[in-house]
Amino acid sequence: MVNPMASAPWPGSPPEFPPRPGSPPGRPQPPGGPQPESLPPTRVWLDQEAGWRDTLSERLLEQRIVLASGLLDEPAATRLSAQLLTLDAEGGGPVRLELQNLQAELPAALTLMGVLDMMRAEVQAFAGGETGGPALGVLASCPRRLAYPNASFTLSEPRLRFSGTAAEVSAREQQTRRMVDSLVYRIAEVTGREPDDIREDARRGRVLTVAEAIGYGLIHDRAARRR
């Protein structure tokens, strides 16, 4: 027996159309031919960082403030050196060098240390976050060194990798020893400690709080609120 209600459309329901050739089964095709496939909407996101970095950097330089954060590699050392030398050539008062979570590659740190040695203007370093490894040489090269309350300082040995022939690796190792000696002697000079003591603390990976860094001779004082 055939149910007469099975094929009868429900009152008020839209009419059904026979499927056109090529259309998927079970999906009726509306009249007027095949419709174009709908495309996903296009979203245009504005670059929130476009331009603001340059503007902020210019405003900081106008106040004789240089910001160094993250990993200090050769390109970053070149950029920071150019900023410091520009401020030094313009004369005026001291330069404020902000070191925020600064880590450094050994060659880049030595490059910036050499520039700081030649600065006529007094460079005041303000350390925040964690400063460690070769970046301590940058900090030690500043005549005035202050730290924010959240700062910490890690003495550690630089990590370098070499590749090439045996003669090339041997030459690089000798060069690295000289660079490490320059870093150790600089920290020993400002802290008044023996270079061997600095090397031993670096092997142990000694971490200093702000109070310990002041006692160690690495930091002069805590940063005070600007008035």
Question: Which percent bin holds the helix content?
Answer: 25-40%
Radius of gyration: 32 Å
CATH superfamily: 2-enoyl-CoA Hydratase, Chain A, domain 1
Number of strands: 8
Low-confidence stretches: 4-10, 42-46
For the termini, the CA-CA separation is 96 Å
Q: What would the CATH topology be?
A: 2-enoyl-CoA Hydratase, Chain A, domain 1
Number of helical elements: 7
Structural class: alpha/beta
**Level-1 CATH class name:** Alpha Beta
Quick synopsis:
With 227 residues, the protein is α/β, with parallel strands linked by helices. It is built from seven helices and eight strands; from the N terminus they run αβαβαββαββααβαβ.
Commentary on this structure:
With 227 residues, the protein is α/β, with parallel strands linked by helices. The protein has a single domain, classed as 2-enoyl-CoA Hydratase, Chain A, domain 1 (Alpha-Beta Complex), CATH 3.90.226. The chain has helices at 52-62, 74-90, 106-117, 135-140, 166-191, 195-204, 210-216; strands at 65-72, 95-104, 123-128, 130-132, 144-147, 152-154, 207-208, 221-222. A 5-stranded parallel sheet has the order 1-2-3-5-8. It has a 3-stranded mixed sheet with strand order 4-6-7. Helix 2 runs parallel beside helix 3 (106-117) and helix 5 crosses helix 6.
Looking at this protein, list some descriptive labels.
single chain, 227 residues, alpha/beta, 2-enoyl-CoA Hydratase, Chain A, domain 1, five-stranded parallel sheet, three-stranded mixed sheet, 7 helices
